[in-house]
Every structure is written in structure tokens, then in C-alpha cells.
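Key idea: predict the complex, not the pieces.
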Amino acid sequence: MIHLKSDVLSKNIGKDTNIWQFCVILPEAIIGSNCNICACVFIENRVSIGNNVTIKNGVQLWDGVTIEDNVFIGPNATFTNELVPRSKAYDDDNLMSTLVKTGATIGANATILPGITIGEYALVGAGSVVTSNIPPYALYFGNPASHQGYITSNGILLNLQKKDKNGVVHQLK
Ligand SMILES: CC(C)(COP(=O)(O)OP(=O)(O)OC[C@H]1O[C@@H](n2cnc3c(N)ncnc32)[C@H](O)[C@@H]1OP(=O)(O)O)[C@@H](O)C(=O)NCCC(=O)NCCS
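Result:
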């Protein structure tokens, strides 16, 4: 479903993907199947999004952002692709890529600096500023975001010793 009040210029959109009101999607963007792109999302040209991805309201995905399958991006999370931007000084050579790997979650209002990779099933806490790569299954939060624990693929939060809140040790998978 592509809502009539969105402006979707890309034809590269998979089956069963829903795109809601006031989204703007540029023509070269690629979006997989069964995604939910909530209202007021902007997606630039050189953006690739996998399958089963949820992008909550108010997110902008700039050139160079790649989102793999089953990723959740919370409302108003902010991506960046230029480390030292200046008005009217556009140089593609300065653009840096961002990769969000399978199953990762980015909390509401987190900011991801350019050139970052967020590993498989990692979780970034709400409001965090991500300044370095995040390993798979890691829980990061704060400003700057730092390693606070781990998370399993089905969303059980673990401390740095990989224990859940009941003290049970988990394998990461
Ligand atoms: C990161 C997160 C998963 C941690 O959950 P948790 O382990 O249950 O966290 P707790 O409430 O036990 O907090 C543990 C400590 O971390 C701090 N903390 C928790 N989340 C934080 C965050 N996002 N940023 C900074 N500090 C945070 C708490 O203040 C607490 O500190 P204290 O020990 O000094 O009191 C959760 O807080 C979070 O940010 N979830 C994302 C929510 C979201 O964005 N959802 C989007 C859908 S709408």
C-alpha cells in the first residue's frame, strides 16, 4: 500500500510494503518487501532497505545508508552522511556510508554519526549518540553511546556478563 498522500518516486518497492502519509521517496531508492514505512519518512536515492524493516515516523535516510532485513528504526532517529558539513559545499567524495545490519534496533531519537556500522541484532538506546561501530548483539546507549550489555536476537537484555535480569546466562544467537 502506498498512501495517496505520500510522494513515492521509486518503483523499486517490494510486495506488501506499506508507505504512509507524507513520506517522500526518491526514484533510485530500493525498498524490500513487507516493510512498514511510517508517516513523514524521507528516503534519498542511494539508500537500500531490506525486507521486514520498520521505520517509524520522522526518520530521514540519506544517500549512503544501507538497512538490512528485520531492522527496527525508532521515531525521529537521525542518520548523517557528512562529518563536516557546510552549506552549499556539496562534494560526493565527502559522503560516508552507514550500515545497519540484520535484526538491529535503533531507539527513538538516537543520532548515528557518519561512517558507522551497527552489527546484527544490536540495540541502540533511545536518545543515544553513536560515535563508533557497534558489534553484533551489543547493547549501546548514552552520549557518546557505550557498551552497556548485550541483547539476544529475540530481545532479551543482558548485562556485560551476558546475564539476564534473573541472573541466567544466555548464549548470543
Ligand atoms: C536501552 C534500553 C533498552 C535499556 O533498558 P533497560 O536495561 O531496561 O534499562 P534500565 O531502565 O534498567 O536502566 C539501566 C540504567 O541505564 C540508564 N538508561 C537506560 N536507557 C538509557 C538510554 N537510552 N540512554 C541513557 N541511559 C539509559 C538508566 O537511567 C539506568 O541508569 P541507572 O542505573 O544509573 O539508574 C531502553 O532504556 C531503551 O532506550 N529502549 C529503547 C526505547 C525506544 O526507543 N523505543 C522505540 C519504539 S517507540
